[in-house]
Amino acid sequence: xKNLFLFFNKVKFFMLFIFLQIIVFKIIISxxxxxxxxxxxxxxxxxxxxxxxxxxxxxxxxxxEVNKTLAIQNASLKQESFHxxxxxxxxxxxxxxEIYKKKYLFQPSVVIQNSTRSRKNxxxxxxGKNKKISKEMGVVASTGxxxxxxxxxxxxxxxxxxxxxxxxxxxxxxxxSCEGTLYWDKQxxxxxxxxxxxxxxxxxxxxxxxxxxxxxxxxPPNERVGTVTEVLKESGSNNHLLKLKTSVDFYALxxxxxxxxxxxxxxxxxxxxxDE
Amino acid sequence: xxxxxxxxxxxxxxxxxxxxxxxQMSLGFLNPYISIVVYISFLFTFPxxxxxxxxxxxxxxxxxxxxxxxNTGGIHASACVFLAFVRPFLLRRLQSDSPxxxxxxxxxxxxxxxxxxxxxxxxxFSFFTWLFLLEExxxxxxxLIILKAILSSIVSTSLIILGQFLLIRKxxxx
Lengths: 276, 174
Hints:
The complex is a heterodimer. By secondary structure, chain A is an alpha+beta fold. Chain A has helices spanning 2-10, 12-32, 45-58, 63-79, 264-275, and strands at 104-113, 120-125, 138-140, 145-152, 157-164, 168-173, 180-183, 192-199, 209-212, 224-233, 239-246, 255-261. Chain A has five helices and twelve strands. The termini of chain A are far apart. Chain B is mainly α. Chain B has helices spanning 2-20, 41-45, 52-70, 75-94, 113-136, 142-167. Helix content of chain B is 65%, strand content 0%. Classes of the chains: A alpha+beta, B mainly alpha. At the A-B interface, helix 2, helix 3 and strand 2 of A face helix 3, helix 4 and helix 5 of B.
C-alpha cells in the first residue's frame, strides 16, 4: 500500500496532465459535431463584442470592395425590376401573382470575424436570436453560398463555412439533374472545393457552373456555388471528382444574407416521419 | 503581488496581440504551411519558482481563452497543456549549471541567449506538433505535419525572441 502511494506521488504531475487533457478532449468532441451545442465559440457576447469593435475599425479599409459588390448586385436587381419588362402581346394570359408565395426570406448581416487559416473555418455574424436566427439556416453572399449557421447567441451567430471539412451539401450542375455532394477536401486550398458522386456518363466540362440543389432546405435552389476548374476521376468508382473555384471570395467576405426557409419545419417533420 | 499583476497584464496583452494583430496577418501562398502563434510566449517566460501544477492550470485557461476567439474548439488548450507538461523536463535539461530557483522569469536577458532560443524552439515545436495532430486528427500525413511544425516554430520563435528584446526592460546589473 505504501509503495502504491509512493508511486502515485511520483506520477501525480503526469496524472494531472492526463486529467486536464481528458477535460479538453471532452470540449473538443462536443465542438466538432455541429449538431451539438458548443459553448466555446465567438458567438459568445464577450468575444463577439471585441470582434464588433475591431470590425468597426477594419470596415474603412474594405469600403471599395463592398461598393463594387453592391453596385453589381444593384445592377442585377434593377434588371429584374418590373419596368424593364414589356408586354409581349395583348392576347397573353395574365398570370395571377397570388399563385406565387414567398418561401425564402433573406436577413442581411455583416461578417465580423472571418478565418481562412484552419481546416475548420468558422465565421461570426452580427445577428442572432434577436433577429430570429436559428441553427442550420443557410448563409449566402450576393455571389453564392457561404455556409450554414452553427451556433446562435442573443446577438451573434457562428457559421460553418464552405472552407470547413465538416461541411457538405447536395449540389447539381446548372440545367442538369445529376446530384453530387459538395465537400472541402483536405488538399483543397481556400476558395476551392470538391464535388463527388456525379456519375461519369454525365458530360461535365471545365467552366460549367455548379448550383445548389435545394432539397435539403438550407439553401434556395439554383444558388451559385462555383465553376468547375478540373474534372478528375474518383478513385474506385465510376464517378467524377470535380474541383471547383467558389464564386464567393472567402478572403473578402463582408455582407451576407441568412436564408430563412419558411417551410423548413414542415419539411423536417415530414422527413422525420419517413425515417420512423 | 507585483509578479501576479505583471503576469495578468501579460496574459491579456498576449491574447489580444494574437487575436487582433497576428491572426490578421496574411503570408500569401505560405498561409497553409505557417501559423504564427505568439501568445505561448507567456508560458516561456512564466516564473520558474511557481509550481508546475499551477503552470498546467494556467496553460489550460490561456488555451481556452484563445480557443474562444478563434473557434478552434479546444485544440489550443490541449496543445498549451502539453507545452506546460513538457516545460519542466526541458528546464531540467537546459539549466543544469545555474541555480534556477530564484529566477523570477525566463526571458532573453536572464538566460544565455543560445540556450534560450533552443528552449523556445523545442517548446514551440512540441506545441505545434500536438496542435497540428489534433487539427488533422489522423496520423496519415505525418511528414506534412512535421514540416508545418518546424516552419511554424522557426517563424514564431524568432518573432517571440525579437518581441522580448523590444518589449521587456533590460534588468540592471547588481
